[in-house]
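Work Package 4 report. The design task specified in the project plan requires that, given a folded chain encoded as structure tokens, an amino acid be chosen for each position. We show below one input record used in the internal validation round.
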């Protein structure tokens, strides 16, 4: 190209080589980022599965408590209605 010196051409060649090296590092970094993200997602899935299991357990226990309370309420109404008579 005209208006360019040999030194300019050497700088451009050096910059191209540097950018290619950095591009390779960028791909490695991207691969590492993907692995880290995959591990994080797997850990999150395990955590949320434990949370879901815990919630299901609590809901089951609350259902049995609600059924027991309903039985107590029925017995209580029966007792109070008998004493009113």
């Amino acid at each position: 190209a005209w208006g360019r010196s040999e030194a300019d051409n050497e700088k451009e060649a050096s910059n191209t080589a540097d950018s290619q090296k950095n591009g390779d590092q960028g791909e490695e970094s991207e691969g590492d980022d993907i692995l880290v993200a995959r591990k994080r997602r797997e850990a999150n899935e395990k955590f949320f599965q434990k949370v879901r299991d815990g919630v299901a357990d609590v809901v089951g226990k609350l259902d049995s408590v609600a059924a027991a309370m309903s039985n107590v309420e029925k017995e209580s109404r029966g007792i109070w209605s008998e004493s009113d008579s």
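The CA atoms of residues 49 and 55 lie 10 Å apart. Validation will be extended to a larger panel in the next phase.
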